[in-house]
Amino acid sequence: MTAMTASCMREHASAQAAAEALAAGIAQALQAGLHTRGAAVLVASGGSTPRPVYQALSGLDLDWERIHVVLADERWVAPDQPGSNEAFIRETLLRGRAARARLTGLKTEHDTPQAGAGAVNARLASLPRPFDAAVLGMGEDGHTLSWFPHAEGLDQALDADGPLACAVMARESRVTGAHTRRMTLTRACLTGLRRADLIINGAAKRDALAAADLPGPVEAMPVRALLRDPGLALSISWWP
Question: Cα-Cα-Cα-Cα dihedral of 54, 133, 81, 155, to 10°?
Fold first, then answer.
């Protein structure tokens, strides 16, 4: 593991311990945004790993009415269909006190994510930036957000000077399942983040992180775009 990645790494004994620590840190970043500009933005990823973090965060006493929650990425399915990240965020985070937060989804009524990209970028452009906090995950294939290895649209997703969101067509795999059509926030959208948390659990993902930390092309393991960015305030949390 490189010195930069090692310095970002935090190990936790359990999911509960990680969730409590992460929720406290994320809340602090959101409070800072509320204090400095009257609003805050949290980027929220789907997947099973962040569930306990969202459950802990949803119970905190924040001014949720002034907090925007933005999906990190989305499968091109309606919010009431299986696989929807929007549905997952509503179930796990936007409940209790956090139900008052404002959600910005990435799915539109367009037939394809390519056709909906303009509308999604307009939504994102209306939010205060830079964003305050982001909960990011990583798959065993080295993807993060919907930055999948060698995906169609990956170049645009990784472009720090590109749009805020873009369409991605991933190669079908065990990780993607049938949901290969995606909308994702881009590297440009993450510029200036106050706090970025990459959260992983289990031995397989720890091994994947170690592999991503080795020399190699970003296109093969796109999480490298985060690990190699000295301007990103990245913290990595892991638990068994």
Answer: -140
pLDDT at 1: 74
Are 219 and 150 a contacting pair, CB within 8 Å?
Answer: yes
The pLDDT of residue 5 is 83
Which contiguous run of DSSP H or E holds residue 56? helix 51-58
| Strand runs labelled E in 99-203 | 102-104, 133-136, 165-169, 181-185, 195-201
Q: How far apart are CA 133 and CA 192, in angstroms?
A: 10
For residues 76 and 70, what is the distance between their CA atoms, to the nearest angstrom?
16
- Bridge partner residues of 41 (DSSP): 68
Architecture category of domain 3-146+192-239 in CATH:
3-Layer(aba) Sandwich (3.40)
Tokens of 32: 């800072």
Q: Helix, strand, coil: what percent of the chain each, to 5?
A: 35, 20, 45
pTM comes to 0.96
Secondary structure element (H or E) that encloses residue 207, with its range: helix 203-212
- Distance (Å, whole) CA 220 – CA 240: 25
Nearest-Å Rg of the Cα atoms of the chain is 16
**DSSP code at position 171:** P
Give CA torsion, residues 204, 42, 190, 10, to 10 deg.
-40
DSSP letter assigned to residue 99:
G
List per-block mean pLDDT (blocks of 10 residues) for the chain, which spans 240 residues.
81 97 98 97 96 98 98 96 96 97 98 98 97 98 98 98 98 92 98 97 97 97 97 96
Q: How far apart are CA 165 and CA 90, in angstroms?
A: 21
